[in-house]
Write a structure and sequence with these properties.
CATH class: Alpha Beta
Structural class: alpha+beta
CATH architecture: 2-Layer Sandwich
Order of helices and strands: EHHEEEEEEHH
Distance between the termini: 40 Å
Radius of gyration: 15 Å
Largest sheet: 7 strands, antiparallel
Shape: globular
Number of domains: 1
């Protein structure tokens, strides 16, 4: 099991950050390696179910993402299903005129990814990807404000 966690301050209110990340296509725009989001379906809890393709260590990994918790302006929790399994938890905290966005993930990788590149390489890769994703969200929301 791998885990990664990081936080970024965004100069936008919680509602704007939540709304941006509530659109699965925006995840594809800010997440390195997320190459395809398709078959998006709204769930009764307000969340979404979708299929995705993620490129990691040269491998294309297809899977399903199900938003199991959707608490507007507070939290989104997703289950990764398929070859890449685990959870992603996004929390939104109001700060001085902005938002603190925390991204926490726990996941298991396909065996062939581990044997091809090795655990330390994948861990560093995923930590960099997570940081880049948070930085991309901050840049996207800051540039759209103004």
């Amino acid at each position: 099991m791998f885990d990664a966690r990081d936080t970024v301050h965004i100069d936008a209110d919680v509602g704007a950050v939540f709304e941006f990340l509530d659109d699965p296509h925006n995840h594809a725009a800010v997440t390195p390696g997320l190459t395809d989001v398709r078959d998006v379906e709204r769930l009764p809890n307000g969340g979404k179910r979708l299929s995705y393709t993620y490129r990691m260590a040269g491998l294309g990994i297809d899977g399903e993402l199900v938003q199991v918790e959707h608490e507007p302006n507070e939290r989104m929790r997703f289950e990764l299903r398929g070859r890449l399994s685990g959870t992603i938890d996004l929390t939104f905290t109001p700060t001085n005129g902005g938002t603190e966005l925390t991204y926490a993930a726990e996941y298991d990788l396909p065996e062939n990814a581990l044997t091809t590149v090795g655990e330390p390489v994948i861990r560093r890769f995923n930590e960099r990807q997570l940081r880049k994703t948070l930085d991309n969200v901050a840049v996207e929301l800051t540039s759209t404000r103004g």
